[in-house]
Amino acid sequence: MKRTWPLSDIPKPALPKKGEPGSFWEDRGDRRHCGVDLHAPEGSRAVACEDAVVIRVGTFTSPTVTSYWNTTLFVDLRLGDGLICRYAELGEVSVTIWEHVRRGHLVGGVGTVLIASEITEQSPGYVRTLKEHDTLSMLHFELWRSVPTADARYRGGNWFANDAPADLLDPTWYLQGIL
Ligand SMILES: [Zn+2]
User: Fold this and answer.
1) What spacing in Å lies between the alpha carbon of 2 and ligand 1's midpoint?
2) In angstroms, what is the span from residue 81 Cα to ligand 1's centroid?
3) Model confidence over 93-130: pLDDT tens digits?
4) Is 167 left (phi over 0), alpha (psi -120 to 50) or beta?
5) Residue 159 near residue 26 (C-beta atoms within 8 A)
6) Is 0.90 topped by the overall pTM?
7) Is 106 left (phi over 0), alpha (psi -120 to 50) or beta?
8) Cα four-point dihedral sign 151, 152, 153, 155
9) Which of 46, 70, 84, 140 could bridge 144 with an S-S bond, Cβ 3.0-4.6 Å?
């Protein structure tokens, strides 16, 4: 099936390799990364990779949970084959629940997930590195076999344990397959 790169303003980059920052299941010390990070300036257009149905919209990160997190949003898209793509760390959302979207339809705008002034020596290493590189805005892209979990170990796109949720998939193959 023909797919569209999820950031319409930005050419497809080289995806992070296994273990690299922003890669799927990156070891972040006390947590593992549940998606792939696609860095982009705030407001960059995030679009549907393929025809889909919006099945959920909600808050993804909030400073009430972790001080260095901004408020960002997520959108879950159910694809034709039943897999679910989660578009996360959005600053704004342009779709509503149960909306049928076509490939290339605007889902929302990339948000700035991290608050630079709240990142300190005590913050996790990967967060300090993102601040140093001034890469605080991104599309956090996940792929699931079923509706993403509400498990308390799942927070801000990370999994606070080493055994992965059963239905979480590595989105690298999905993204890699888009030309
Ligand atoms: Zn991420």
Assistant:
1) 25
2) 24
3) 999 999 999 999 999 999 999 999 999 999 999 999 99
4) alpha
5) no
6) yes
7) beta
8) positive
9) 84
